[in-house]
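Standup notes
- DV: blocked on the single-chain target, sequence here:
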Amino acid sequence: EEENHKFFTNERINLDSSSIIFNSWDKKKNIKFPKEMTPELAEEIGVHLGDGCLSFNKKYFSVKTNKKERDYMLNFIFPLYKRLYNLDLKLMELESVVGFEIYSQAFFDFKNKVLKIPYGNKVEKIYVPEEILQTKNKEIYRAFIRGLFDTDGCAGVSRTKKDYPFLTFTIKSEKLIREVGEMLNKLGFIPYVGKWMITLNGNLMVAKWLKE
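- DV (later): unblocked, structure below
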């Protein structure tokens, strides 16, 4: 972490939304978009890459999580989307998942044209947006990784080593895994990086994670 201290220069990254097209629904809902990269936006992008779905057809977007995450969805995700995009979301509850879905030309354009997040099947297509990497900002890096972990991560204790905790998340994108591993290194973590998996092992790493 000390070696990478000079890496974090806290660059301000502005977002150009001039290419966004607003349909009648967008105008009615008075949807808005952030003008620069922030920790809250970075965390939302992490959530999107973890449990989100962006589709070109009908300009569809959704986030769906395990039904056990109902409180997380209502008390964290919904207020986050209200602050970022002025969206008043309606909870969708299915047999095994909870979440929301919207049909928005403007939201699709922001995600795909402004943030360059690919639509459709996410396997091997997703990566950390350049607008996040270019900030070289600790809080923004942490926020993005937190959102990703909240949706695709888990915590546990090793069966072979007594009281040996670990954190891990699995995502089927080698590029995303490699980039997140590099971000964790810059933040002073020592991750194990596999093809589709990152693991942080031991009390020191878990304590640092909880603190940051």
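- Follow-up: The mean pLDDT is 95.
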